[in-house]
């Protein structure tokens, strides 16, 4: 038996394990989920790393959102890098409870992501501000769509002239391969309980009624986006809607349109936040967590060739159906 076949067999077994791990978390009770999480991941408390010394009673937490904002990636043993939604929520919760943390510097380098996940982060950031924390955002090369959505609660938003932001709005996409299937003689049998149960199916044509239903969902989420900009930027709804037509803006254009407050880089945002807090605040960030299995370090990538890892990772990420996204797409 060749090494490649062995690798694929191992990969298949691990894929099944990954799917079961995520599925159990969805159907079990909260208490069992917590126990399972502790067993699989070890100590879940975010660990800190001081990056600038200063007063331990007046601290600044530096957190980042880099990559596509989607949940479930933190439970994927094939993806131990990049954005981790569950980890970010844990960090925000820890910051909220820590009275020594007076300010938060949020670095955003993201094209956006899920409507649900963006709303979760936005809610947590509002609660940080209600707890008396100052919130500054520094945008990286891109902070578009959901990346901008989560930036709106900030006291100050910084971006460089070269930053791409905007893409304010909602998108829902799917692929329809019915004609391609027909060309090759492939037929699909669908048994459903209601007329719209297979709405947006890739194997059937979209009707006008289907489109109207989906458009109403997109419109509702779009209005939510408009509201967070209106409230966060103290901007009229009519002006927000003029800006929120899906186009992208440079950092300079965003400043001219009132979508950001200052042109600058992360060090500029941090310097301004320190000045507002006053004194000599300590700056820290959270250490990245390694995947654990029963309290022991675990990394699936070490067992598999890169091609198999990439293939399985894509299968895990792409197995869900079409969803609404605050996402900039090419």
Q: Can you put this structure into words, describing what you see?
A:
- The chain is α/β, with parallel strands linked by helices.
- The chain has one domain: 2-enoyl-CoA Hydratase, Chain A, domain 1.
- It is 42% helix and 20% strand.
- The longest helix is centred in the last third of the chain and has 26 residues.
- About 5% of the residues have low confidence.
- Pfam families: Peptidase_S49.
- InterPro entries: ClpP, ClpP/crotonase-like_dom_sf, Pept_S49_SppA, Peptidase_S49, S49_SppA_C.
- GO terms for molecular function: ATP-dependent peptidase activity; serine-type endopeptidase activity.
- This is Signal peptide peptidase SppA.
Number of domains: 1
Number of strands: 13
Helix proportion: 40-55%
Overall shape = globular
Looking at the structure, the CATH topology is 2-enoyl-CoA Hydratase, Chain A, domain 1
What portion of the residues fall into strands of 2 or more residues? 15-25%
- Counting helices, strands and paired strands, the structural category is alpha/beta
**What quaternary form is this?**
single chain
CATH architecture: Alpha-Beta Complex
Largest sheet data:
9 strands, mixed
Order of helices and strands: HHEEHEEHEHEEHHHEHEHEEEHE
Can you identify the CATH superfamily? 2-enoyl-CoA Hydratase, Chain A, domain 1
**What's the gyration radius in Å?**
22 Å
CATH class membership: Alpha Beta
Task: Report how far the terminal alpha carbons are from each other.
Answer: 43 Å
- Low-pLDDT stretches: 26-42
Number of helices: 11
Mean pLDDT: 84
Keywords: Hydrolase, Protease, Serine protease
GO molecular function: ATP-dependent peptidase activity; serine-type endopeptidase activity
Pfam family, one: Peptidase_S49
Family: Belongs to the peptidase S49 family.
